[in-house]
């Protein structure tokens, strides 16, 4: 799902643990050749939002794409779904093993599954903290750990985590969400140094506010949705929200063999939000 504060990701990977990896395939069998031809990519939360845009782009560039999601049915042609709950190690291990058996290996992992949280530290209770950290942070660790034995065998191994500008910018009413994405940023750096000698590159993208259906639904709660949308657009110095496709292209770059010297990097896709301070327009 996409948080209007500044990311997130794909489907809402919450509960409903599964003990086996149920496979839903809409794969036409082959994809157009490209820079990722012959490689297999896992995309968690890949059924909607940034995850779906990323899955489609990786497939278009030649990868075999396995979408790990709570709802992995009805995917576009060229994507293969594996029903997975990232809060369950049993479910994750089964899904990753099923992907490896289906494809003969794993080369790329896109840790994109995540959920939002709105409010100050007073607004979110312990259950909220456990749920969001379990999905947004521990979910990344579970999927990565399950995939690493396969990634070590790949000549082009890469992990890309979907982080957020909230990891390093103070955004109102996003204390829990920001904490979770700050942890993802630290985890990215930690994993990058741990596995560089394994030949596994680890990077993350930090999107700004991304224009997804979740944002549109979120805006409906306001008396003036158009005004709120304008405010979200204005948060980026470019004057508009980021598109899922723009984030997908950044992820695809970091996952590509063309980025073989890029590891331990956080790539901002935020319309300049993090580093630019522009003057207000004259009135």
Q: Any overview of this molecule?
A:
By secondary structure, this protein is of the alpha/beta class. The longest helix is centred in the middle third of the chain and has 26 residues, at 126-151. Strands 1-4-3-2-5-6-7-8 form an eight-stranded mixed beta sheet, sandwiched between helices. The chain is built from seven helices and eight strands; from the N terminus they run E-E-H-E-E-H-E-H-E-H-E-H-H-H-E. Strand 2 (40-44), helix 1 and strand 3 (64-69) form a beta-alpha-beta unit. It has a single domain, classed as Rossmann fold. The model is unreliable at 1-6, 10-20 and 24-32 (pLDDT under 50). The chain is globular.
Task: Give a summary of the structure in a few sentences.
By secondary structure, this protein is α/β, with parallel strands linked by helices.
Instruction: Report the CATH architecture.
Output: 3-Layer(aba) Sandwich
Q: Termini separation (Å)? A: 37 Å
Query: Share of helix among residues?
Result: 25-40%
CATH classification class? Alpha Beta
Give start-end ranges of low-pLDDT stretches.
Answer: 1-6, 10-20, 24-32
Counted up, domains total 1
Q: Hey, roughly how much beta strand do the residues contain? A: 5-15%
Mean pLDDT: 89
What is the count of DSSP helices, taking H or I runs of 4+ residues? 7
Order of helices and strands: EEHEEHEHEHEHHHE
Pfam families: adh_short_C2
InterPro entries: NAD(P)-bd_dom_sf, Sc_DH/Rdtase_CS, SDR_DHRS6-like, SDR_fam
Family: Belongs to the short-chain dehydrogenases/reductases (SDR) family.
Protein name: SDR family oxidoreductase
